[in-house]
Amino acid sequence: MSTSQLTGLRDGTLSIEDEHYAVREGVGLVDRSAVGRLRITGEDAVDLLDRLSTNQMQGLARGCGLYTVLTNNKGRVVDLIFVLALDGHLLVLTGPDERTKVAEWIDFYTFTEDVSVEDVTDETGQLALVGPKAAVLLEELCGLDVLETYESASVAIAGVEVTVVRTDFLKQPVYEIVLPLDGLDAVREAALSSGLGVAPVGDDTLDLVRIEQGVPAQGRELTEDSNPLEAGLIDHISFNKGCYIGQEVVARLNTYDKVQRGLVGLSWGLDAAPEVGADLFAEDKKVGVLTSTSKSNRLNRGIGLGLVRNAHSEPGVVLVAGSPEGPATVVVEGLPFTSEPS
Amino acid sequence: MTTAERQPLTISISEGAADHVRDFTKQAGQPNANLRVGVKGGGCSGLTYVLDIVDEPKEDDKVIEDHGLKLFIDRKSYIFLAGTTLEYSGGLNGKGFVFNNPNAKTTCGCGTSFSV
Questions:
Q1: Looking at CA atoms only, how far is residue B45 from chain A in angstroms?
Q2: The pTM is what?
Q3: Between β-strands A199-200 and A28-31, what pairing exists: parallel, antiparallel or unpaired?
Q4: Which of A120, A233, B71, B75 lies deepest, with the highest CB count within 10 Å?
Q5: Which CATH number is A313's domain given?
Q6: Which residues of B sit within 8 Å Cβ distance of A?
Q7: Contacts of B77 in chain A (CB under 8 A)
């Protein structure tokens, strides 16, 4: 199916396969307003976030962003956040259920610094354009040139002033549009009526693509039970920036190769349905936990993500997922998932 | 003020540490300066100590006088420092200024940060 065939099917009746096709081959439009959005002001904001998180915040240029991990003093994940430097403030995107926790976390560690955190989630909206044709759509909507990953621009779409930032969080083109809440409908309608075959895409489809791509999510792979190394967030860690909360633990895990488990793909037959949270066993010994599940008709199998001990994380290893319905056999796969199990 | 008169939950500085602060302020050309004591977020364990030579307190600072020196502490830092004694560990292997903080449950390997 070409993406143009999707034009007009915008009443939420698209099948998950159609939505999935749009995201992988064309462009999908996702309402991401549930993501937490914090506006942080004050001249010490960058310095404070640098002391609280894993990535190098110093020198973050205006208009640019980065992912960084808030970690506790045990080196465990508090949240993976995206920080965008805008005129006079930072825009911080948090996990969907983490905005209050993150705001309170930053506030707790603010002593005499000039830092102020405002939760603007309820007064703003967020739309994501996902897929290889997202840049073409943006050019059509607002004349925006191609952005590099983590670059942003302030533009007007359908008369609404918006901030567009390319996060690529699904390891493929993703442009997040942050805008005033009262402009959400106008921008959504402008995107859907562009004539470029934009498909409205739901959360289930987005989660399927996330799992296929091997991207960890807050509350699933990213919890205070996991550290950023085992959860696959090493690209968002600076090992030479100096101290931040949890740095000693994270550095030691990396230096001495002490990371005990890692993020893996897992698959099973379409008729099996192991549940999120199921323990994973190898010969009756618990070796991991199933953290995300979905069903991929494209790949013709059930797929998921899990955190599995290193000795059992090679592709092809067979594990058993515990379940109230009875045990289910699952197979370890490499990430991202490919048509043929790796 | 003598040790016996001290309130249990305050912040104090040892005589040796106070002498070193005075040496430092003289060398810095600020012989009448006092000491700002506080904590800030960061460091491996979550909170790190802050020491600074300043002339005046900020509004709402707690001001504690000990061994002839005024300590200025912001109210939030005080919560994490109440009961602390600031000491000085000298000599070639000395650690310099040391916070003996009864609120610190853990400290990082290098000893400069703590958690409560």
A1: 5
A2: 0.91
A3: parallel
A4: B71
A5: 2.40.30.110
A6: 38-48, 58, 74, 76-77, 106, 108-109, 112-113, 115
A7: 111-112
